[in-house]
Amino acid sequence: MIKKVSLRSFRNHSKLDLEFDNKFVYINGPNGSGKTSVLEAIHYISTTKSHRTNNDVDVIKNEQPFAVIKIDTEKKKYSMVISDKGKIPSINSKEIRKLSDVIGDLKVIMFAPEDLNIIKGSPSVRRGLIDLELMKIDKEYLSNLSVYKNILKQRNAHLKNLGLNDDLTILNILGKQLYDVGIKLMSKRNEFINKLNIETKNVYQRFSEYKIDVVYEPNLNNEMFLNHIENNQKQDILYKTTVNGPHRDDFVIMFNDKNAKNSSQGETRLMVVALKLGLLKVIKSEVNDEVILLLDDVLSELDNNVQNKFLNELPDDVQVIMNSAIKIKSDKIQIINLKENDNERP
Ligand SMILES: Nc1ncnc2c1ncn2[C@@H]1O[C@H](COP(=O)(O)OP(=O)(O)OP(=O)(O)O)[C@@H](O)[C@H]1O
Fold it and tell me: Is 325 in the pocket of ligand 1 (CB under 6 A)?
């Protein structure tokens, strides 16, 4: 459980120290008070990245040389110093040289408004989500994915210089290697999305009378993938790239048996929240470690009765840190109020 979050020169916060004494924490405050920044900082410690910018210096308070995030859990003390020269993470006051050694040490699942893109956005958004979550729990998947991407790069580079009448030996060798590792990715994705489907449906039915399904849509099945690699080389040569394979996989979210992408904002939000809670269940069942749930602006656009149901049915086996501009009253939730430009709290 996170006990303390301290920020120095992070976004609008010059100096902010928050103490959490509850499993359910609700950060409340007007727009621009820096609620999202608090969750962003926790996410940063977990992934070494912001969820809303790829440019690290964006998180440093204007005109300041560096930002500092400190997070104390019951077991460990994490810190991260971010400057225009890079970032330095530490765990228990020991500097960690490789960023990859910090990623996932503090495990979080985050819902952010940007995640509505999971339903409305392109396949690469959904593929990215599944790959990221599988990487967190399965190191073999992480290494297979990196091998796959490497071979794909080599095969595509080779295709750039290949004519229709050229010798195909190298292309076929790379194709077979791509197939061998590609089917491992597909099998893992299939298994993972099936589990995610079960958990997401379970969560969703607590909030809605409608039905949701999460369905894996591989670009090709194993047999078709092999056929493509062994017999459709001409197509790839003409397009100068590997047209088909798991790098084009997708999964869809179905709302009452129809693709959910035309659903309303409120419906979409509830589906993505259910998907993230489903994800939390799957990840928790796979790792033997505490997972923290971050919910950024989760209550907006949900009906009043769904908001109440949601707050009453928060998962009680994880710490949940939420924020919203909506005022709530609850005995079981620690409510922290940030004031407008509340950046100098003692
Ligand atoms: N690098 C920075 N330096 C100073 N201020 C910043 C920086 N980056 C963002 N801000 C400001 O910080 C404020 C806090 O933004 P944040 O998104 O965390 O607030 P919020 O309370 O979640 O708001 P909302 O409810 O509108 O989402 C905004 O007013 C933003 O303009």
Answer: yes
